[in-house]
Amino acid sequence: MNCGVVxxxxxxxxxxxxSIVRAVFxxxxxxxxxxxxxxxxxxxxxxxxELQHEFPEQLFLEKREKKSGLGTAYVHGFKWALxxxxxxIYEMDADFSHNPNDLERLYAACHFDTADxxxxxxxxxxxxxxxxxxSRVLLSYFASVYVRMITGMKIMxxxxxxxxxxxxxxxxxxxxxIKFIGYAFQIEMKYRSFSKxxxxxxxxxxxTDRTKGQSKMSGSIIKEAVFGVLSLRIKxxxxxx
Length: 241
What we know:
Helix content is 40%, strand content 18%. By secondary structure, it is an alpha/beta fold. The strands form two sheets. A seven-stranded mixed β-sheet has the order 3-2-1-4-7-5-8, sandwiched between helices. A two-stranded parallel sheet has the order 6-9. The N and C termini lie far apart (36 Å).
């Protein structure tokens, strides 16, 4: 049985892409993988095309013309998946900060439990982060505290990007209204799911910072997240979400 499609956005992930694809395909359960590549100069997309010869029925590639942000990449992937018959649609990073083995646990939360949205959570059982400097751990942790205060969501890891959505949840979210492109995108998707009344379950995972390639974190992404939360809450208050 196919357990859904794992959407992995990439930009300059040539050091990780083959390993992450093979790791997903080595799992006991069967997953498909969709790579959304933003025209990486390091030839990430070319490596995916090469791997497609080995995995023609499981591996897919959508290549965009330029680097356009995490949020737009996932929205592109969601729309691609919804045009096909996938029941479970996942978000996952390419850099092994998300352990591919945990895909099966996210699947179980949505398939066997009652979750409409399952989050691979760094903070639901304490702080499960490896190789991050303390400053970044504190920034991430207190960002989620801030989000809970503003939105009323009880989610411990609001900025998590390791997620399984049931198909019907994404079908009921107006993807054309998604505004944010950085980490605020992750908050926005959770808030829209929360506002629709979907069951959101946090599955504890260990997050390990990348060992290869460069982080995409920037000051503008953090700023978007801080002010984006306020704008989402205001829109919800005026029933304009």
